[in-house]
Write a structure and sequence with these properties.
The chain has 460 residues and is of the alpha+beta class. It is built from 17 helices and 16 strands. The chain folds into three domains: 198 residues, no CATH class; 85 residues, no CATH class; 106 residues, Immunoglobulin-like, CATH 2.60.40.10. The strands form five sheets. Strands 8, 9, 10, 12 and 14 form a five-stranded antiparallel sheet that branches. Helix 3 runs antiparallel to helix 17, helix 5 runs antiparallel to helix 7 and helix 7 crosses helix 9. The termini are far apart. Bound molecules: iron/sulfur cluster (2 copies). The site of one iron/sulfur cluster has 16 residues, from helix 14 and helix 15. The site of one iron/sulfur cluster (SF4) has 16 residues, from helix 14 and helix 15.
Length: 460
Amino acid sequence: MKFDIKEEQLIIKPYENEGNIQVREQKGHYQGIRRKLSWLLMITFMLVPFISYNGQQAVLLNISEQQFRIFAITFWPQDFIFLAGIFMVAAFALFFVTAWLGRVWCGYTCPQTIWTLAYVWVEHRIEGSRNKRIALNKKPWSIEKINKKIQKHSIWFLMSFLTATTFVSYFVPVVELYSTMLSFEWSGLITFWVFFFALCTYGNAGYLREKVCTHMCPYARFQSAMFDKDTLIVAYDSKRGESRGRRKRKDDPKTLGLGDCVDCNLCVEVCPVGIDIRNGLQYECINCALCVDACDQTMDKFGYEPGLISYTSEQQLAGKKSVKFSYKLFGYACFTVLITALMIFWLYNRIPLEVSVLRDRNVLYRMNYEGHVENIYTLKILNKHQQALNYTIDVQGISDVSINVPDKLLIGGGQMLQIPVTLATDGYNLDKKMTNIRFVVKAIEHPSTLLSKDTVFFRD
Ligand code: SF4
Ligand code: SF4
């Protein structure tokens, strides 16, 4: 037999637009938790930039000034190691949670999931239930359809704009951002980033949705490496559910030779990634439990036990006992605690001061009008505290040295002072042509904020 197959029919197009998945709205135990958590995280995200600490924005990642302020601590480029530590703790914490609870991050706390949930909620309020939305999309354009689409996209755009402006307010002080917004005086850079992030939000939550999770998210790619037979997953109990089949509520499934799955298809209609969990474990599943709530609702209607689809593990599905705390989990937990402890130790011992000393490159030394030897230096002092402090500069290593700086130098919070320093001493105080000396810079109000820098002093 000859098959007439065209070449393009043989090409698999994994990123081909399959159209948006229209999700049925579902209520239930797990969806209640997801909604409350989503609200909490969204409100936190919106409010954090408005929190003030010591008269300043409490959380501000000021890239232009190279200062990351988080409440009482300001991080500078020199503190990059701490940022690396935060990423390591986040990574190991995520490994721990994933190995234990599966993709609970994806289903409950990932911004992509939360924003998609919000956008679908708006879509449902304006265009109606899943079936109405599918019907509306198939209908030819009419005044009613245009009206609904305009309403939906306007609200989506407002949500995107609000999200993007909030996101940018983590990097640009809120006072500056919102005051210039109201007077239409945003700089080109701010305007670009707000509209760029608004476009990303609009595209990701409005259109791409589950495609971000299945094709773009790197976490989705490597999370399976952390899974084991005891990891919490959402699964369908095929032993109990099969053979699936439709029936009336009063029917006895045993006499019909059926399992508990009534083939209502609700678990598929509510799934945001468009899979049928009854086909077994699939990497697209984000553990959101929409299918669990939908199936429990059906089980309840038919008077069956809930849990045909449930949070379980491969071990439990096979009728074995799940290990609650494996060596792998223990290892991830140990690394998370160890790196966190190291970071706390580093933070506790961190000196919020940076000092650099540069010798004058033009002359090694010179003689002043008193006949004393002079050496010239430039000191750069960075006050990493958030408040202004007075600093003293002392010199060790030479006796009877005079220093031409005031007794105390006031340096603003997060400010750097560059100051020329001239040291002068009688040549008889110096045994050698080159003497090792040390500058000691100390904050008067915080004596533990003290740094010393070594350099040399020359004579002829
Ligand atoms: S299969 Fe169930 S838990 Fe997995 S993504 Fe779909 S609805 Fe969520
Ligand atoms: S929701 Fe439950 S009963 Fe309905 S098709 Fe899915 S597994 Fe079967």
